[in-house]
Amino acid sequence: MRPDQHARTMLPIPDRPAPGLTTYDAKDPDTSYPPIEPLLPPEGAPNVLVILLDDVGFGASSAFGGPCRTPTAERLAAGGLRFNRFHTTALCAPTRQALLTGRNHHSVGMGSITETATSAPGNSSVRPNTKAPLAMTLKLNGYSTAQFGKCHEVPVWQTSPLGPFDAWPSGGGGFETFYGFIGGENNQWDPALYDGTTPVEPPATPEEGYHLTEDLTDRAVGWVRQQKALMPDRPFFVYFAPGATHAPHHVPKEWADRYAGQFDDGWDVQRERTFARQQELGVVPAEAELTVRNPQIPAWDEMPDDLKPVLVREMEVYAGFLEHTDHHVGRLVDALDDLGILDDTLIYYIIGDNGASAEGTLNGAFNEMANFNGMAALETPEFLRSKVDEFGSPSSYNHYAVGWAWAMDTPFQWTKQVASHWGGTRNGTIVHWPERITQGDGLRSHFTHVIDVAPTILEAAGLPEPTSVNGVQQSPMEGTSMLYAFDDAQSPERHDLQYFEMFANRGIYFKGWSAVTKHRTPWLLVGGEVPAFDDDVWELYDGRTDFSQAHDLAAEQPERLAGLQRLWLIEATKYGVLPMDDRTGERLDPASAGRPTLVHGTSQQFFAGMGRLSESSVVSIKNRSFSVTAEVEVPAAGVEGVIIAQGGRFGGWSLYAKEGRAKFVYNVLGIQEFVVTADHAVPAGTHQVRMEFAYDGGGLAKGGDVTLYYDGEVAGAGRVGATQPMIFSADETTDVGYESGTPVTSDYTTRGSRFTGRIGWVQIDLGTDDHDHFIDPDERLRIAMARQ
């Protein structure tokens, strides 16, 4: 192996041509130049595949004793290592930014998810340029880089089709190829996709068998094959983050049906079965204890008998979803094996970016957006029973009950969002690299954290941490390479200090001990009483003998607890955790959160063909009066289709034409649909179609009166009984002249619904009477500019 000739701490590596003789004539025999050599990593650098699943608890996968069959995970574990004390941050975007940078999530501005970012540095969602992502470092060292799946690291005011793209994977993220979605979750049957930074539609429909995980796998397999066909000497870094098994739990029915009857005994019994299997596998020590159920989580026997078939089906669907996901991960692993490169590929299979999600309410949800709007009560037990056969299908946007999330985090307390307890942060992780790990089926119980992945990959590739990237001096990575643990199960752990915090749920790990305090309940997303920070009750656990945090020693060792509390405060100050912010749903409003917005003022104009506009890219019409005015040209044969639509099947609104007549629909969570129809068709020619919504006021989510106008003359009127106060959708968008994703109105059943006339412009105004029901075409630009 020849020594590496590059100084790689400054990236890009400076071009430094060697001085020498320059001849006048290239034919001169003294003319000599060294051959051009493409930049490659040091010899022996492996391919790298990082697989990150979403919202999978420690006790879900069969590889760690859970009830959901994951044969690919078991296969990789049999030839590699299982880490049973690997930790994440308790929430998705923070874990992902920490993974991709090797820094603590507050250090890179991701104290929580991007949708709740504030102006505080630790919660801004803006990654400092002093903390370059791993993919950029690898790319500038000669790796081919690609990401497939979920990207939840883009600040929400940068998520429009115009960027800026500094935080996008293929913009400033270091990935040469990106195919996936921007945001926290997506409809698995009908996702909003990007190829690089270009919005694209899925290649097929749900009726044609489309599913997002399969599509992402197809793209990843195709990319790896092409990369090895064209660049066999260049290693790759592939980040495969499918977005499964985050809600909505969407999976073909046959996969869910494989688990029929398996969960009939409920979540309490399931925890006991999982715990026994975990001890049998050895992923949980024999002396560990199963933690008790918190009183805030109902026992299975406390649930109504007539609701239990729904609850059982929720878990069957989730289990099928996880097995389906693992199956497609297996297709990607098989592709590496077929290419003969599996042994020389360092694979991280991280089974979850946090604990299992308890955001689905105590009963579960047919449309999880109901809970995000504080309207879960609309999904009555009767409603859920009526939908039991549709869970997991394209007509659902479903989630399981809190009790199942708790069971999927066996043997620990609590769930996703609760960064204090291991149920929120401990995720089973498998490392497979036969070229280095020669004895497979090993167990590693070193304390490790997601920030350790990036420095591990750099050490495995023989690459130093850069001190400068793109002319910016870099701060050191905060993780610790795990490579030492690959070789020796008995080696002392090197990552022995780690803070945790999420919505003021907080904890500290230090040399086996943990001090923790749970502050906020994860399924209470809007409202709810929380204690003052200083009133939080801290607990103390000795992880050297208490694997599951089952025995609180706070009363017995108050001095040790006080020392760890002080240490938490020191670490929190060091990494930008302060000020703590325990608001959740309230931070969805950018004004109160203090983050930028893409749109200012009370008016916004759109033009035909504009689309895939995220909710943060459009002026908010929630909880207030508003109007929508469109200049349309109607052919003699009449007009059909969408003028403008925001949201989709599971919540939103649309102004459109049906059988020639203008219609307005307000869809509340896919449960209630309020439709107002004009009395007659829009005449042929160029006209203004206007909708005015007069909000009732008196609080959030109220209804209002709707009036339709043609050229300022009343054409129809009606009533909207209720509205959504917080969010329409996590993935559906606003489109002009067509509708991407699922349709808002039941008048249309598939995506598309293109307007058959011509749209000159569309304008949303907050308030309903600014133009006497008509906008002078010559004045509309002046009016809009005056409102900015």
From TrEMBL:
Signal peptide (from-to): none
Record domain Sulfatase N-terminal: where: 46-462
Annotated coiled-coil segments of the chain: none
InterPro entries linked: Alkaline_phosphatase_core_sf, Sulfatase, Sulfatase_CS, Sulfatase_N
Region Disordered, annotated ranges: 1-22
Superkingdom as given in the UniProt entry: Bacteria
Keywords: Calcium, Hydrolase, Metal-binding
Pfam families from the UniProt entry: Sulfatase
Protein family: Belongs to the sulfatase family.
Entry protein name: Arylsulfatase
Organism annotation: Oerskovia rustica
